[in-house]
């Protein structure tokens, strides 16, 4: 049975909910309490979870039922590829901003500076100079904030593109196909 209606407007709204959660992470990154981050992560989970459900439903219901398995596989593969590319790109943004914001004081031990340039985790676990650790933590917080805002902008832009590009049937017919 084919569904009647179009989930594209709902997907766009839900994608904006996910973007709102990402903005929340950017705004709460420096708070001492976990509540702002926790609420932001819940909003992201809600937005992305519902959007993925709706998009998979749209893909699977757009093909004849004997092709639903193939359509579901393609949808899952596209999702996994998108996640991997997102992690790679946003991880690169995160690292670039962290390194750009890492402003260590003059006279910092070169070995500590080299460790701090690698990552915050390595710095916290190996560097004993509290000033270097504090600078690395500040740089990391700034990088998380910037990356969250970049991800929110990309998600919001993607929602607008989806809204403008994905056709929305006006007559309520969805998933009607001619035999090939």
List strands and helices in order, with pairings:
Blueprint lengths: L7 H21 L6 H27 L6 H34 L8 H9 L1 H7 L3 H36 L15
Helix pairs in contact: 1-2, 1-6, 2-3, 3-6, 4-5
Concise summary:
Helices cover 74% and strands 0% of the residues. It is mainly alpha-helical and 180 residues long.
- Give the termini distance in whole angstroms: 19 Å
Described by the principal axes of the CA atoms, the overall outline is: elongated
Strand content: under 5%
- Element string (H = helix, E = strand): HHHHHH
- Count of helices? 6
Radius of gyration: 22 Å
Residues in helix, %: over 70%
Total number of strands: 0
Average pLDDT value?
85
User: What structural class should be given to the helix and strand makeup?
Assistant: mainly alpha
Spans where pLDDT lies below 50 across 5 or more residues: 1-7, 176-180
Mind explaining what this structure looks like?
- It contains six helices and no strands.
- The longest helix has 36 residues, at 130-165.
- The chain is elongated.
- The two termini are 19 Å apart.
- Mean pLDDT is 85; it is low at 1-7 and 176-180.
- It has helices at residues 8-28, 35-61, 68-101, 110-118, 120-126, 130-165.
- The chain has 180 residues and is mainly alpha-helical.
What brief labels describe this structure?
about 180 residues; mainly alpha; about 0% strand; disordered N terminus
